Each structure stands twice: as structure tokens, then as C-alpha cells.
From TrEMBL:
Gene that produces this protein: pdp
Keywords from the UniProt entry: Glycosyltransferase, Metal-binding, Transferase
Catalytic activity: uridine + phosphate = alpha-D-ribose 1-phosphate + uracil; thymidine + phosphate = 2-deoxy-alpha-D-ribose 1-phosphate + thymine; 2'-deoxyuridine + phosphate = 2-deoxy-alpha-D-ribose 1-phosphate + uracil
Cofactors: K(+)
Protein name: Pyrimidine-nucleoside phosphorylase
Lineage: Bacteria, Bacillati, Bacillota, Clostridia, Peptostreptococcales
Family that this chain belongs to: Belongs to the thymidine/pyrimidine-nucleoside phosphorylase family.
Presence of the UniProt keyword Transport in the record: no
Amino acid sequence: MRMYDIIKSKRDGRELTAREIEFFIEGYTRGDIPDYQVSALMMAIFFRKMNKEETANLTMAMARSGDMLDLAPIDGIKVDKHSTGGVGDKTTLVVAPLVAASGVPVAKMSGRGLDHTGGTIDKLEGIPGFNVSMTIQQFISNVNKTGIAISAQTGNLAPADKKLYALRDVTATVDNMSLIASSVMSKKIASGADAIVLDVKSGSGAFMKDDQSAFELAREMVEIGSNVGRRTVAVVTDMSQPLGNAVGNVLEVIEAIDTLRGEGPQDLKELSLALGAQMLLLGRRANSIEEGRNMLEELIKSGKGLEKLKEMVEAQGGDASCIEDTSRLKKANFKLAVISEWEGYVESIAADEIGRAALVLGAGRETKESKIDISVGVLVHKKIGDRIDKGEMLATIHANDMQRAQEARQIIMSAYGISGGIVEKPKLIKGIVASDGISVF
């Protein structure tokens, strides 16, 4: 078998066999196949596309390119949750403890962030002492003891995907549904979950900027999961504005804790309940979405969700007193108010620009080598549909550098669109994609 023939086959529109896909993934991961040949194949796939079977085969080949976690020693149905990413997206910090408190084990491998803010792992490292680097044995043991563990992904989890994504990023071949979907799902499948709930974002702060693309990506990923024997559901959600109010690592941890106390922003609570209910349904803990939501709401009211977060923090070496008293978490040196110069109703917020403001402050990474400042970020006070008067605060900047704060202020000011008339709030949940069909709300 030759790479030349595989490239030519896809260039001419033919379906690649499972063996051909395995050949190029194995060879590229070992370093036997050069970048220029894989670049040619990626461009052929970009234009000729892949069918369902090819996409499933590519996903599994990438998943098998490194470690495949065996979570069989953990009792129960292991349900994973993944978000395609957005601004202020801290739902894992709310959903994971709630689902674990309900009796469904949560064994989650999470990543670090690249761009406007950190990922789940970066946020958790904002809790003093919290250990995200566990051995597989420790990881499994923690889940069996407390029902939950969140760990950084191992260096050898789907290594083919890491190589391929880096190559696609510099060869203009990122924006292909099959390649995006297989990239996400290869890591989820390698992480060992029995079932997967996907939060697919749509809007200015998301990878998918429009609903049609988000539903298409959701469908692709659900089909992959179903084709390889994993029960998979996708929830398509709004990212036309930041989720919740906090954008920035420690600020988001505090907001997640407030939500578990029943005091957080309504949109973060609503999305957490929607995703968590799907997880309980797949984990066979609830018989319906309504039953799942009710169970999760009760866990918030009783404080058991917050207690489960404290258990996880203690089990992973963190200072659990910070969960009770969030003032113990690291704070930025000063705050800068962003004051409205207009009056009316918030018509739009460029979520990606709010993310860029957080990045300027130091909350995210411009490169993999960038060091995150966990204390900085933005608290958004006005969301789409809210009334705003001249002189009111649009947002508060938490910063450690005045020059960066002033730059972030200008970005935030330009991110807002104000209307003279009443504006309807955007719909948070846009639809559900399951193996048996698509529901658009």
C-alpha cells in the first residue's frame, strides 16, 4: 500500500477503506509519512469530503493511535460531556458535581485552553493545591471513592489528532465537518466513556458561527458516536453572547460555585440543567429529561452538588475551604468599570470580542507556551435584551496591568450594540440532535 495511491483515490472522489485510513494514520503518527503527503490528503478530503463510514473509521484510527483508557473498573455507566467551546463556558464545573451527586460516575479527561481563556483544567488549577495530573490508577480510584474525577488529558491520548490538527491549522483544511467531528470524537472515545453528551455552540463566540453549521457538526458527531457503539446526544446552544457573567478563570470558578449554591446567573443554571439531564438519561439514572432536571434542581437546593465539588477538590489535593469561602481564591489587583455612553437596550454583544478582551488581560493563551493569569477577566453586567442607561456599568474588568485594562475596556465598549427599542433575549437551547432524529426549538 502506498500513500500516493490513497491520495489519488480520494482526489478522484473514491471512498477510502478502513485499512487505507489506518495505514496513513499509523504511518503519520510514527513519522514514516511526510507532512506534504498528508497535507495533500487533507486537501483532497476537504474538497471531496468523507462519508459516514470513512468518518467513523478515521475517528477510531485516531483514537487507537495512542492510549485507549479502560474505565471498566469503575462501576456504572460512565457519561462524558464535551463542549465545542465558547466565552464564559464553565458548565463542567457545575454539571460534573451535580451528575456525580446523583449517582452517575463522572470520569472526565479535560484539556487546557488555547485562546481567550483557559480550559476546565486551567480553571481548576485556580484552586490552590488542586492536582490535575493523576495516574490512571489514581484517576479510577478517585472516581470509585467519590464518584468524580477531572484530570488533564494524558500526553498520549489520540496523538494522531494532535499532529493532524497542527497540520490542518497551517494548510487551510480545518473547516471540514468530517475532520472537525473526528478530531473531537477521537479524544472522547479514547477517554473511555460509555456515553457522550455534546454541547455544540453556535454564534459569534463559537467555532460554528451559525445554527446550520452547528446542527451539521452535531449530526456528524452523533453519527460517529452511534457508529462506534457509544450512546451520543448533542445539545445545540447559543453563544451569541458570553455564558453567564464571568469570563476569566478564577472568576468562572466563583460563578460556578455560586450556581451550585443556587445563586448563579439563570442562563448558566439553565444550560447546566439541560446538559446534566441528558447525562442522567444516558446514564440510566433518570427516565426522562424532566425527571433528570428535577433531580438536579433538588441537588442544588439541598447543597449536595456543592458538597460533591468539595469532595472532588479534597480528593485531588485542593484547598476545599476555598469552595466555602471564595474570597480565598486569587484576586486581581484592581478593577476598572466599563461605563455605558448610551441608553437603550442591548441588541448584541460580540462574544468573541469579550473573549479577546479577556485574552488581552492575560486570561488566555495566544500560544501553547503562554502563561495564564488565573486572576484576571471580565464580569459582564448587561446581556442581550437588558435595559441600559447612560452612566450604568456594562462590565467590570479585573486586571493586574492598567495599560491592558484600558485596551480591554475599548474592546468591550466596541463589542456592544445598543438599540432604541425593546430587544428579545436569544433562545439558549436551539435544539437536540440524537441518533433517532433532530429536534429544533
